[in-house]
Write a structure and sequence with these properties.
It is built from 13 helices and no strands. The protein is mainly alpha-helical. 11% of the residues are buried.
């Protein structure tokens, strides 16, 4: 499916899209040579020089995805560094996805728009690989100040055009014109000879008698050997032939080629049609056999298919029950965890109480406290007795004072008469 999609994209772009990678790769090799990649990259990593179509993806070219991808990452990293962007050189065992993502990020940082997925670069070959390296090479050339200039063609002289036209190949029309001119020239020469013969006949007979006769006295015989004559004819014959060089722009040549191609197609179609008809017949028979066999297999396996469907239904029901049971199990697991936590707390408290019950230190402390309380109670009793005794003495003293005061008030006063 991917191959058919790729072919569809190439057909949409045009008939020359399949060859675009070859052109890009050739331009890329020239740009890398301008950047002196042979000394800066190949010698450093001990690699071979790139061929003219190294990164091109084609079924007619040998491919090594691992080697091509490593070479692509090495050259891309070098070009990014030359373009003025710091980039760590990738290693052979690095993650391909991370390496490709870093290269595309640097390409976007240089202002190049990327409209294809990173997976197109993981194969190490193809049009997108050539396109990425070509953009990086252009940025590197701009960084080094190199620019391509227009070619300067030498000025052509008009005289040379005339010479070239004279020395050009003869076309069929020119040859016909020359042949017509030669035929007219020969007719004119024959007419002149006839006129000269008539004028010679009109001369006076005396003048004819005074001149010696030009008629031969005997039949002329050739003294040249026939074999030598044939050899001379064979030697001179190639020079006497007129070679007419065909012009590819002539419509007659195109018409002849069209007739030849049509005849070739007709003959090939005649031979191929029988093979195609036979192939169609064989394919039809094979399809019929496959269809009948499929019906027979379906009929034989119908019961098994029903059993399989019932088993699938039971399996789905079992999965549903398992899902429900799994949900209850989760809730129970949570409750179990809470109970386990509370149990741990109770155990910890029981351990603390058990350790405190088994230990005699609190009992000793209690006894000591009781002894101390008893001592304090004895002291308090003593103090209470002292206070009661003191209070009793105070009361007795107060009572005695009160009694004395009462006796003092009850004594009568002496009489004052006699004393007065």
């Amino acid at each position: 499916m991917a191959e058919e999609g790729r072919r569809g994209e190439e057909e949409d772009r045009g008939p020359g899209a399949a060859h675009r990678g070859f052109v890009l790769m050739e331009e890329l090799v020239e740009k890398l040579k301008l950047l002196n990649y042979e000394e800066e990259v190949l010698v450093k990593h001990n690699m071979k020089s790139l061929s003219r179509h190294y990164f091109v993806s084609s079924p007619y070219l040998a491919s090594n995805p691992g080697e091509q991808f490593y070479m692509f990452t090495i050259i891309a990293a070098w070009l990014i560094n030359v373009a003025g962007r710091p980039f760590t050189e990738p290693q052979e065992y690095d993650e391909p996805n991370a390496t490709v993502s870093n290269i595309l990020a640097e390409l976007r940082a240089l202002g190049v728009q990327v409209d294809f997925p990173p997976s197109r670069l993981k194969s190490g070959s193809g049009e997108h690989v050539c396109l990425v390296l070509d953009h990086l090479a252009e940025e590197a050339l701009k960084r080094r100040g190199f620019t391509f200039t227009r070619p300067k063609y030498p000025a052509e002289k008009p005289e040379e055009d005339g010479v070239m036209d004279d020395d050009a190949e003869l076309t069929l029309s020119r040859v016909e014109e020359e042949m017509i001119e030669e035929a007219d020239h020969e007719e004119e020469e024959e007419e002149e000879e006839n006129m000269m013969d008539l004028e010679a006949l009109k001369l006076p007979s005396s003048h004819a008698q005074s001149e010696p006769s030009s008629k031969p006295d005997r039949i002329l015989e050739s003294t040249v050997d026939a074999a030598e004559w044939r050899l001379e004819v064979e030697r001179v014959l190639p020079q006497l032939r007129v070679t007419i060089r065909t012009d590819n722009k002539d419509w007659r040549i195109h018409l002849d080629q069209m007739h030849q191609h049509r005849d070739g197609i007709t003959s090939s179609l005649r031979d191929t049609r029988s093979y195609l008809d036979k192939l169609q017949e064989d394919m039809g028979k094979t399809l019929e056999k496959v269809g009948s066999r499929e019906k027979y297999i379906n009929k034989q396996l119908e019961q098994l298919i029903q059993e399989y469907r019932s088993a699938q239904a039971k399996l789905s029901q079992a999965k549903e029950r398992y899902k429900q049971a799994s949900g209850g199990e989760t809730e129970r697991s949570r409750v179990l965890a809470e109970i386990s936590e509370e149990l741990e707390k109770v155990k910890q408290e029981m351990e603390d109480k058990g350790s405190s019950m088994c230990d005699g230190a609190p009992l000793v402390k209690i006894k000591q406290s009781l002894t101390k309380l008893k001592q304090e109670m004895v002291q308090m009793d003593v103090r209470i007795g002292v206070v009661q005794h003191t209070l009793l003495q105070a009361k007795l003293k107060e009572k005695s004072n009160m009694t004395r005061d009462m006796h003092a008030t009850n004594i009568p006063e002496p009489a004052a008469g006699p004393l007065a």
